[in-house]
Amino acid sequence: MASAAGRVGGSTSNIGLLMPVVGVVGLASAVLAGRRAMHVDWKDFAVRFLTGPGRTSRILLLIYVLLNTKSLPGAWTIRVFGSMIRHAVQLRKPLPPKALFHYSVTRSYTSPGETDYNLHKSNSTYFSDLDVARSQCVMHLMAPGFDKIRRNKQLRIVRDPAGAVAEGSLGVALGAVACSFKKELPPLAGFEMWTRVLAWDRKWLYTMTHFVAPAGKVRPASWDGGSFWASRGRVATVAAGEAELQGRVVASAVGKYVFKLGRFTVHPTYVLEQSGLLPERPVTGWRGGEADVHAEVELPAGAADLADWDWRRVEAERRKGMELAGHFAAIDDAHALFDGGRDGALGQFFPG
Ligand SMILES: *[C@@H]1O[C@H](CO)[C@@H](O)[C@H](O)[C@H]1NC(C)=O
């Protein structure tokens, strides 16, 4: 899953190929490390580490490394690939239809390495945390669908407008991210990222992530299951009012993904359907022809409040999300503003 904004079509977008490679390399290193670790006298090692010559600098370095684990080289890769592998290896059980718009909650903290001159989490570092949170949400919900669409050549699910089966390897690429900052996070503060599907159109699947702090204060009414921690004592109803909930939001970010089979863009509803997340939509189905069937069909009054998560409730929720996602989609027009300094430029400056 490509990460930073603008890395669209980057080399890391092919999960189909990447996963087995990362898996094999990871497993091999773990086995090697495990075999070596068996020959180490750990007690002796610990005593020498803590009492031997030069212990002060060693202990200080250890503390520094422990506080900064998420900022170490390679940590981002481990976090993002870890989230992808976790959900690809252990495909989740079927979810109730309402789970499509439910949050996935990912915990993290502000490491000293992320702290800026104001002694707060630097605004630019929100984006690497977002990569992990989005990946957890999208992989948890959609790994079953990716697994099927990856084998489209055999399963013949996705077809181009002429009816031919789309071929090529599955790519999931991030098209854009935007983050709005509201409050600061101090160093070593725990926070949570609450990520959910916001909406989708014919090309993009939009996600919404709220940074919530302090961690562990806001609890959902229930968990759909899946998480080890979620099933252990964190279930409590939200007693907080709207004002209190909003007060906990530190930042909010929107992201958008595109799914590809080779060069063919896969309509997001293929992925959602194959993940068992979309109710059946009679007559028109979820994909229109020329016109966007999504927006043109009139919904019955009160569709947004239906207790039953049938297609009308899902569609009402999607349209609500699109009101915000539509503005965000307009950022794409930004590329067209670049004119290469036709009228001149200020200069080139160091440091960069
Ligand atoms: C980051 O965002 C916060 C919250 O909006 C703001 O107070 C702070 O000035 C920003 N930091 C920088 C370096 O712009």
UniProtKB/TrEMBL annotation:
Protein name: Uncharacterized protein
UniProt keyword terms in alphabetical order: Membrane, Transmembrane, Transmembrane helix
Family in the record: Belongs to the lcsJ thioesterase family.
Transmembrane regions: 15-33
PANTHER family xrefs: PROTEIN THEM6 (PTHR12475:SF4), PTHR12475
Upper classification of the organism: Eukaryota, Fungi, Dikarya, Ascomycota, Pezizomycotina
Superkingdom: Eukaryota
